[in-house]
Design a protein that fits this description.
This protein is α+β, with helices and mostly antiparallel strands and about 220 residues long. Helices cover about 45% and strands about 20% of the residues. It contains 4 helices and 8 strands.
Amino acid sequence: MMPFIRAIFGRFCNSFLLRLRFDERGGAAVETALLLPLIVAGGLLCVDLFKVGIERTRMEQLAGSAAITLSVQQKLGKAGLDGLYETLFKVEGLKDVRGRHQMVVSNVTMPSRRIWWSLSRGGDGVCAETAREGTYEGTLPVDAELDGNGDPENDTHSLIVVRLCRTVDDISMEHLALPDRLAVVSVNRALATNVDLDEVLLAEAVGAIVQEERE
C-alpha cells in the first residue's frame, strides 16, 4: 500500500505545483497587461518633457541674445528690429511656426516700472499680458519699490525686457500633463535712459512714448 499511496501523493503534488506555476505565470501576465499602459504613458511623458526642456533652453538663448543686442541701441528702427527677429528665428529653425510663438520687447524705465514702449513680433496673444495702466508687472531683477516711490520723474535708467512665448502643440507627442505654452523672459539694462523709436515703430508701439509724442 505504501508505494501506491506514495505514487498517488506524488502525482497530486506534481499536479499542484504545475497548477501553481501556471497561476504564477498567469498572474504575472495580468500584472504586465495592467502596467503596460502606465509604462507607455510614462515613457511618452518623459519624451515630451525632454523635448520641452530642450525647447525652453533654446528660447532662453534666443531671448537673451535679443535682449543683449537691443540693450546697446540708442534708437531702434523697424529694419533693425525685423532683421534681428528674422535672424534669430531663421538660425533656430522656427521660421515656419510664427503663429505659434510671439516675441514682446519692452523698454521699461526704472525704478517706476513705467513701460516707455512695447513692441510685438510673431503671433498675437501667445504671451500673457504683464502690463496694467502702463506699468510693467512682470518679474524684474530690480524692485521698483526700493526707491523713487514709483514716480517716473525719479527714473534713472531703463531695461530692455524680452519675453518669448510659444505653444507646445507641435513639440508635444501626447499632450500628457504639459502646459499649453512656454514663456521665458530675459532682461538687460539699456545703455540709454530711454531707447527711442523711428517713426514706423512709433506708430506701432504702445506705452508712455506714444502719449508724450502726441502731447
